Amino acid sequence: MDNANEVTNVQAAGGRTREDVPNAFVISSVDETIFVDGVDTFHFTMTPPPNSGDFSFWAGHWPSTVSCPPGGPPPCTVVGNPAVLPGENTVAVYTGWIHAVGEPNGTYVFRYTVHGTLNGTPVDLEASSKAIVMTD
User: Fold this and answer.
1) How far is the first Cα of the chain from the last one, in angstroms, to the nearest whole number?
2) Rounded to whole angstroms, how far apart are CA atoms 26 and 36?
3) What is the CA 4 to chain-centroid distance, rounded?
4) Is 57 in contact with 84 (CB distance < 8 Å)?
5) Which range has the worst mean pLDDT, 3-17, 68-82, 118-132?
6) I need a labelling partner for 39 at 20 to 30 A (CA). Which of 21, 57, 128, 133 fits?
7) CB-based contacts of 59, cutoff 8 Å, min separation 6
8) How many C-beta neighbours within 10 Å does residue 129 have?
9) pLDDT, mean of residues 17-27
């Protein structure tokens, strides 16, 4: 993701974490749809920390925010929503795929829909992988 929005004065705007920075794209979830030979075959919805749900094993795969409790000393254990800052070019989440026994062979295309907000306005972004041929 390339957040080409303008960088603002973060301190003047009160940004204390990634998700609080003006013009940051705050990620709420990512839908991953996997097409095999053009057919919608697998579908997953990944939710980032702090509400990782079924994909908690990928909790460290997001550009997350961790801060200290308000007015409290460390440890800094408050986990916020991941966000892509203005001027930043990074991935929303990274995942992996192992072609397992029993999965169909063919041409796979991975499509991602990243759901989030920009300055409080809902935004959906889409991207697809190149075609990948998988065989036994």
Assistant:
1) 32
2) 30
3) 17
4) no
5) 3-17
6) 57
7) 48, 49, 52
8) 13
9) 87
Query: What pLDDT is recorded for position 9?
Result: 62
Per residue, what are the HEC states of the chain? CECCCCCCCHHHHCCCCHHHCCCCEEEEEEEEEEEECCEEEEEEEECCCCCCHHHHHHHHHCCCEEECCCCCCCCCCEEECCEECCCCECCCCCCCCCCCCCCCCEEEEEEEEEEEEECCEEEEEEEECCCEEECC
Question: Which amino acid appears at position 27 of this protein?
Answer: I
Phi, psi of 20 (to 5 degrees): -90, -10
d(CA 65, CA 18): 6
Instruction: Count CA atoms within 13 Å of residue 107 on its CB side.
Output: 6
Q: Are 131 and 109 in contact (CB under 8 A)?
A: yes
Phi, psi of 7 (to 5 degrees): -80, 135
Half-sphere exposure for 11 (CA within 13 Å, toward CB)? 0
CA–CA distance, 14 with 20 (Å, rounded to integer): 7
